[in-house]
């Protein structure tokens, strides 16, 4: 991959990341508060919907730029000498490595952002100072493993699907897709990937918001998912149901409620990521075309 293409991928990815994160921030706040342990209302409801936005504004450009420069370079290397049958695998590997690199930037920004979203009375700087004082630099990387475990499956679904839909559309019309067509493919791919990875997103949110020293603070994704399944019930979705009522349910009923909790915030997550996929991947393609 040429230096000019690398710079174009970096700049286009950064611009796309800033656009989508700032435009869709209110939906992300609603999703985070729906997934928080204290419930939507106690986490702030619809108040302070832009709480935590400075953290996103600072982290978006380098985060998205790191992902796309890694994705495009790895994809370019894997394309050489590979057969068409291995193309989806190349997209999967490139996207996975891109997420691992991007999460080094994304996680500290995400930790501060999510804590600010559920504490709208505190500023982003106060949240950052409090986290560093009580937990040190490790506190900013709370949930790194759970974020990577969420992002890799998400990217394994989204990017091969996005690339396949673009190829199919290009073949149907006889020429390469336009940026708006790439955006439509991104919306479908993002929405589907968002739906199937929501339980991992719920676990990641619980781990990042957990108090220091609590069981979820250890970062164990399976333990977080198990705890939600067994105890949280419908309160993880839209209602602030008393946990004592949940615990008194029959095992089958409690299991069904736990399943709902694992998909807490799925509607705003799908809406945000579908629209985000349209803006993010469409803006990326258009900006990259303009730069090359």
Explain this structure.
With 292 residues, the chain is mainly α. Helices cover 76% and strands 0% of the residues.
Radius of gyration, rounded?
Answer: 20 Å
Shape: globular
Query: What's the total number of strands?
Result: 0
Tell me roughly what share of residues is in helical segments: over 70%
Question: Helix and strand string, N-terminal first?
Answer: HHHHHHHHHHHHH
Describe the secondary structure blueprint for this structure.
Layout (H helix, E strand, L loop, with lengths): L2 H21 L1 H11 L17 H27 L7 H31 L6 H12 L1 H4 L3 H30 L5 H18 L1 H12 L11 H12 L10 H5 L3 H12 L3 H26 L1
In short:
By secondary structure, this protein is mostly helical.
List the main descriptive attributes of the protein structure presented here.
globular, 292 residues, single chain, 13 helices, mainly alpha
